[in-house]
Amino acid sequence: MIITRKIAASAVCIAAVLGATTLAQAQTRPASAAPASASQPVGAAEVFARWDKDHNKTLSPEEFKAGWDEVQANLLVYKLHENFVAMDTNKDGTVTKAEADQALAQFQSMRGGDNGGRGGGRMQRMIDEAFAGAPSLTLQQFEAQALARFDAADLNHDGVVTAAERQQARGQQSAPAPQATPTAPQ
Predict the structure, then answer these.
(1) Where are the domains of the chain?
(2) Which architecture does CATH list for 88-171?
(3) End-to-end distance of the chain based on CA atoms, in angstroms?
(4) Quick one: which of 173, 178, 87 has its CA closest to 137?
(5) pTM value?
(6) Where does residue 27 rank: exposed (0-12), middle (13-18), buried (19+ CB within 10 A)?
(7) Could you tell me the sign of the dihedral formed by the alpha carbons of 138, 139, 142, 147, in that order?
(8) Chain segment 41-96, per-residue pLDDT in tens
(9) What percent of the chain stands above pLDDT 90?
(10) Which of 16, 69, 93, 105 has the most CB atoms at less than 10 Å from its CB?
(11) How many Cβ atoms from other residues are within 10 Å of residue 133's Cβ?
C-alpha cells in the first residue's frame, strides 16, 4: 500500500477538522452532554503527532491506518451520542420507546416515507428490539446495544464490518428460526 504525502496530509487535515468540529460542538453543550470517549484534537500537527507512534516524524502505512481507524471509531461514538441526544426530547438522560418512535416518524417524514419499503421496517424492528426489555434506555445502554449489533455483524471479529458481512448478518436476522421436529413416542 502506497500512501503519498498529499493523501496522508489530506487525511490528517480531515481528521483535524473532524476533531476541531467535535471540540467546537462539545463546547456549545454542557460538559455532561459531551461523549466521554471522543478525543478532540485541535489541529493537524496534534493529530499527526498522535498518529506518529514511533515519533520519527513520518507516518508508516500502519500508523496511518491505525490513526484513520481511530478517527472513524470516534466519529461513530460521536454520532451515536448525537442520535441519543436528539431522541431525548425531554432531556432527562433517557430515551423512551415513544421518543424513539417519534424520532423515527420525523426521520421518515423528512425522507418522504420509509424508503418505499426497501428498509423492510428494519429501523422499527431495531426500536422494538431495543425496548423489548425496558421502557427506556440510558446513553450507556444505547451505546452498548449499538456496539453489540456491530459485534454481531462483524462475523470474523476483525473490527470491520464489510458489505458482505452486513448482508450475511441481515440474512441471519431475517431467517426464520428452525422448527424442532416432533419425535415419535417410544
Answers:
(1) 1-75, 88-171
(2) Orthogonal Bundle (1.10)
(3) 65
(4) 87
(5) 0.54
(6) exposed
(7) negative
(8) 458 888 888 889 999 989 898 998 888 888 887 887 788 888 889 899 999 999 99
(9) 12
(10) 16
(11) 8
